[in-house]
Amino acid sequence: MTKSITRAIIFTMIAAVCAFIACNDSGAGNSEDVTAFLGRYAEGPGGGGGGECTGYRLTVSATPSAGGTVSLTGTHCYPPGTVVNITARPATGYRFNGWTGASTSIDTTVTVTMNSNQTLSANFLLFVTLTDTRGGQNRTYRTVQIGGRVWMAENLNYATANSWCYNDDPANCTKYGRLYTWDAAMTACPTGWHLPTRQEWEDLVSAVGSNAGTKLKSKAPDWDGTDDFGFSALPGGFRYIAGAFGSAGAYGGWWSATEAGASRAWGRDMGSAHADVDEYYDGKGGGFSVLCSQD
Description:
Elements: H1 3-23, H2 31-42, E1 56-63, E2 68-70, E3 74-78, E4 83-90, E5 94-101, E6 109-113, E7 118-126, E8 128-132, E9 139-146, E10 149-152, E11 163-164, H3 170-176, E12 179-180, H4 182-186, E13 193-194, H5 198-208, H6 212-216, E14 238-239, E15 245-246, E16 251-259, E17 264-271, E18 278-283, E19 293-294
Parallel strand pairs: 1-7
Antiparallel strand pairs: 1-3, 2-4, 4-6, 5-7, 8-9, 9-10, 11-12, 13-19, 14-15, 16-17, 17-18
């Protein structure tokens, strides 16, 4: 079939679709149905990509494929200027984590205007929960896998000696978890989990890449990050050795299991309006948050 004949048929089919829209609900048509129809036709028989594309191709996928579904998958061809609406739906146990490619939106539904060949991927993250039954507290924590290692995605809130709620207010334990001395933090994680080492923190930051603090911090209203990986870091503040508290809502610090001398240990921290995950060392008697890592 020559190109001129192909274009003539396409124009005829578009006119038919437009006539259909005009006869339906006084001109109110279903844009998703129409664009899907045009996409299937322009790509060739079956819409599978084997025919000649007279417009622009859009390839849509889900990553990982088990993480969820998208309302349009595979490769489709559309006339220039076509507006395509696509929706992502996470599977059970996963959360939607934004789009990459033609859109970087974090909304589940996006609109793509076909003005070039484009690709679009819906990204999903696996959610696994950890239930801590020690002491009858029965607390459940979200977890996330980043760079091959599984981390708690909530600050630990296990009551033990030498741990405190910020400002001694139980509501802050519920919101931010507890603040621990280093010695208490070393034994606070549940069986099968541990306080991460300095190197494990470094591996996490390296896996996330540039602007790791922004990507790991919780989104508004909890903090000012983008939470790209589902790590959901919270600004739990800290406790001075003398007993005063400071900076909840603006600063989060987390112990590592690696000592920096007899009386100090390494940790990592993040702050409001700050894009990085910084390293620090502090006196072991100070109070900081704990995020456990799976053994």
